[in-house]
Amino acid sequence: MSQSAYIRLVKESTVTSADLDDVKQKLDHYISMTSKTGQQLGWNYAEAAFPYTIVEKPEGKGKWFYLKGNNPELYKYMIVGVGSETVTVEESGQEREEHYIQVVLPDGATHGDKSKANEFCKYLAKAYQAKLQLFNGRTMYYYPRKP
């Protein structure tokens, strides 16, 4: 059975909505950061940190893309998509549109895929200052919260 993690863009996030191009830019920045770290260390860390190729299918245009692993024994694939849903604000009872980024581990994904997916989700949640709902159902808050 596939598993999903959600990066929810809440009111306190740096942006209230994101599209696939935004997510790809964040992943490109991640790749750039890790390659610079690798240069400083003197080895190809970028390939170990992001062992995937971004693949876009025509049927997923604007909604999702998938990351195909470069080493099929360790990393197979994961799907990254964007969407929105209507949520009820607890304090006021009003409804509002909440955008999210969803990372899906399909059947057949490896433990390496899950580790990398958790890493990418945490990076994206921190970059957007968002609320992260992990694959195991736990929630991490990367946005400033009221005491």
Structural features, described:
- This protein has helices at 20-41, 45-49, 111-128; strands at 3-9, 52-55, 64-69, 77-88, 95-105, 131-133, 139-141.
- By secondary structure, it is α+β, with helices and mostly antiparallel strands.
- It has one domain (3-141): Rbstp2229 like protein (TATA-Binding Protein, 2-Layer Sandwich), CATH 3.30.310.120.
- Helix 1 crosses helix 3 (111-128).
- It is globular.
- 25% of the residues are buried.
- The mean pLDDT is 90.
Summarize the structure.
The chain is α+β, with helices and mostly antiparallel strands and 147 residues long. It contains three helices and seven strands.
| CATH superfamily (homologous) name | Rbstp2229 like protein
The CATH architecture category equals 2-Layer Sandwich
- What's the number of helices? 3
The span between the termini is 38 Å
CATH top level? Alpha Beta
Mean pLDDT over the residues: 90
Largest sheet: 7 strands, antiparallel
Low-pLDDT sequence parts: none
CATH-derived topology: TATA-Binding Protein
Radius of gyration: 16 Å
Which of globular, elongated, flat, extended, rod-shaped describes the shape?
A: globular
Structural class: alpha+beta
Number of domains: 1
- Helicity level, as a percent range? 25-40%
Residue share in β-strands: 25-35%
Number of strands: 7
The helix/strand series, from N terminus to C terminus, equals: EHHEEEEHEE
Protein name: DUF1885 family protein
InterPro entries: DUF1885, Rbstp2229-like_sf
Pfam family, one: DUF1885
